[in-house]
Amino acid sequence: MFAGRFSWRRFAAFLLLQFLLVLIVYVARQPLVSVSSGPSWLSLGLVALVVLTTAGLAAWRQEGRPTPVRPETPLNPDETTLGQRQIFEHLKVGLVLVDMDGEVRIANKAVQQLFSLSSQEAQAGSLPHLLRHYRFVDLWRRSRELGLPQTLTAEVPQSRRYLSATVYPLSGDMQGQALMLFEDVSELLRLETIRRDFVSNISHELRTPLTSLKALTESLRAGALEEPEMARRFLGHIETEVDALSELVSELLELARIESKQVPLQLQPTDAAAVVQRSLERLRLQAERAGVQLEADLDTGAAQVMADASRLEQVLVNLIQNAIKFTSKGGRISLALGRGDGVMEFSVTDSGMGISVEDQPRIFERFYKSDPARNKTGTGLGLAIAKHVVEAHGGRIGVQSQEGKGSRFYFTIPLI
Ligand code: ADP
Asked: From start to end of 23-176, where are the E strands?
């Protein structure tokens, strides 16, 4: 009867009730009205008390009645309207409504996708069974203990996504329940990693030539300037370093322009063999100087590909330059063409140092250089540019390589 919150109004009403009972018992044992003196003070007091008690009881009843509120939005799955359900289902954010005991009351479709759940798994009744991720379940427990919102970003192995989860403890009539929201932040983290790698790589690439330039100028100032022979040699080194810096800057600009699609391809029917021949001629002297044999096998008839000839040549030149750089004196480099299914395959095979299995998937990333290549000249951007150009043509680029034996770089371009 007296369950509920304490309030002074209820307390006063309760006291009055007690008073009334005591008084009734007392008065029942006395004559109510004395014949000689009219209504007694006692009977008047009784009437007053009855009035007060009635008012107190009325106040108590009023207190117990809930204040009228806007009808609450039902969040029980059985009570949700069709419209509400549609809204939940269309949300890209995963939404889970969980009660005090960890029972799932609502889980929208996005949860199923974000956690890669089968339709049956998505029906799981408890939070641990639904999410199958102890860190997110712990997050909910921590939020329940503290009564505060909690946030966590973690990887979901089954979907290989990074999810940022936030738990909001609910209040009022939904006290004890919590709303969990899951957002896919994989792409954001990937971009953040690329940005961080980019800054660290570019700093490294700039530091090396800048350190050399500083050392060379200091040596010149310290006396080398007075010795013409040494001064000339140092100037030669300075020139090499400045060239490396300009190459880095122009390749970076080139990559940025290709990535932002500022250089539209001039696609037109192009003679594949002619492009290979031209690239070979451009690098013949360089190969001779390095003591490697450069040859081509172009017996494919007059195959025409749909390409931007100068971009195609740029890719080939880059692959041949790499082959020369990573092949020792006496080695061989051969260029070939081969028809595939609707495509022409261009390949550059060398008998050079090869690339380790771990490095192979990474060499097309910007700035990536395998360890032995670190000492050689180069920016690590050439293959990233080549990949962009080939893919812009609708082709594919790849490598097969064996350490110590050599590498075969290939790419495809659609035939007309
Ligand atoms: P760069 O040649 O300027 O360093 P690239 O993007 O052209 O940059 O090449 C990236 C890396 O791939 C090189 O540093 C090297 O480690 C490896 N690589 C490329 N071509 C070859 C090759 N023909 N033989 C061995 N390693 C190669």
From this structure: 33-34, 38-39, 94-98, 104-107, 150-156, 161-169
